[in-house]
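Re: the 132-residue chain
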Amino acid sequence: LYPLSFGNARVMKRDEVIGGYLIPKGFTVLLYNMSMTKDENLFPRAKEFIPERWSRDRPLGDIHPFAHLPFGFGPRMCIGRRIAEQEVYTFLTRAMQRFNVGYKYKDMDIFSRMVMVPSEPLRFDFTERKQN
């Protein structure tokens, strides 16, 4: 529902036509991630928490490859992307194998401190799964 950062900024290296508009060389372009994640044209049921939207079979339809770029793209893409993704996959796989995870607290807001952060501490309940 909320991207890590509010957006990405780039300075145009050459004149470029984007969406029918001429963007001159030297002009700063801001890709505002926060508005894109709420756009129903890009993400059906955008205001709902549906983690399955990201699964490979795309149950809600295809997602445009440039609609969500948390690590950027191209030459300025985050060099730690693959390491960060692998650490997340490994942690989630191991955590889900060992624990049932719940959250029974009130909904939170976010605010920006260079990157987006929750408005209050995350409080998840971890219950150990019974091993067979």
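The beta strands are 7-11, 16-18, 21-23, 28-32, 99-102, 110-113, 115-118, 125-128.
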